[in-house]
Amino acid sequence: MRRKNKLLLTVILLIAAAAAYFIYPEIQSKRTPDFHPVFAAQPIPFNQQEDLHFYSDGWVVCSAPSRFYNWDQTEQEPPFTQDDLAAENNRIDIVAHTLHYIATANNRIYNTQSVPFELVYENRDRVLHDLKEYDGFLVLLIQEEESLISCPYILMKGSDFLIPLEGTGSANYVSVDVDETDLSLLTLCLDSPVPITRVFHYISQNELYGVLSLENQLLYNVYRMKNQVILIGIKDVLCYNVEGELQWSVSHESEGVFEALSTEQSLLLYFPEKSKLGESQGNALEVNEKGYAVKAFPRYLSNLNVFQSGYLAVESSQNLVFLNKNGKLVKKQPLQEPVDWMKYTAAQPDCLYVRTKDNVLHVYTTDKQEEDTE
Q1: pLDDT digit string (tens) for 174-189?
Q2: CA torsion 282→303→222→105, rounded to 10°?
Q3: Please, which residues bridge with residue 261 across strands?
Q4: Residue 126 phi, psi (nearest 5)
């Protein structure tokens, strides 16, 4: 009797395992929506130097001049007050943007969470090159007067006073990242016989806490994660704590060919041309404050986006590829035209925005459309 029970239990477990292996992916595929093209009255030109910014009433093609559209793809007037339009000479040239802010060529920054957009900063005497948005403040990259060097400044929410990040000497800005109110600034020093990479750590936005110096390391991006920094180089990914101690490193030898997705809890680094990272088989590095894991995603994907509980990407410019959180293929969907750029936004979760090879913006939706034949 016991032997029969064990055999029955074994059979049940095998059936359950087989069901999980073969049936669950099929269920996932059926639950993943198809995207259908939204037919527009007029094609929307969208070249490789342009980007999209989303707000409550629609979206903006960020360019010079920028163009404003409703959600139904009809063009609209810029959502600015008359005074702000006059200050912009009735032409909006967006040079940088974040989730909730845009910066114009006239060195003015607007909050786009309300309509009309709200002016939060202006300075005609300095050139604004870029900005990054964090909880409660912005980091602005501003060119110094009579200088070709750009330096980062803190702009607190509700203030128009710029706070410098002091103590960097002659170091040149490369990148910056923030965790809550702690900031890490990646720089490159060129006034020594050998270029030196320095990472300056700040607490409470601008109080210098410590400095990490590295020789013979060409690094071009930094991610702050609690009391650690993740440094991306052309050959290695390095993790240091803020005390300057190396926690781990992973070789990728990608020469800078990778994509990064940063969330509140983790960082995903995808190396499309690789099949091995360090000593582990795989091409994606998932990093959190506890360490890292190497995962095997399909190779040669591009335009990786967070989508639902997994990811969405483009394969060979022809297919949408849906992946689960571990990078396993869930579903493929062919596209009507070759694509070289794609963006999915939680601002309109039923839609997908793609740029075709002929520089036209196409919008896709999970709601099936009927083309107007009149």
Answers
A1: 999 999 999 999 999 9
A2: 170
A3: 268
A4: -130, 155
Angle at 269 between CA 222 and CA 257, to 5 degrees: 90
DSSP assigned state of 233: E
Reference 115, options 61, 58, 66, 73; nearest CA is: 58
Helix (H) or strand (E) holding 91: none
Distances (CA, A) of 240 to 24, 80, 190, 287: 39, 45, 22, 13
Beta bridge partners of residue 175, listed in sequence order:
186
- Per-residue H/E/C for 86-105: HHCCCCCCEEEECCCEEEEC
Q: Are 77 and 88 in contact (CB under 8 A)?
A: no
- The span from the CA of 99 to the CA of 363, in Å, is 19
Cα 108 from Cα 30, distance rounded (Å): 47
pTM of structure: 0.88
pLDDT tens for 343-365 read 999 888 999 999 999 999 999 99
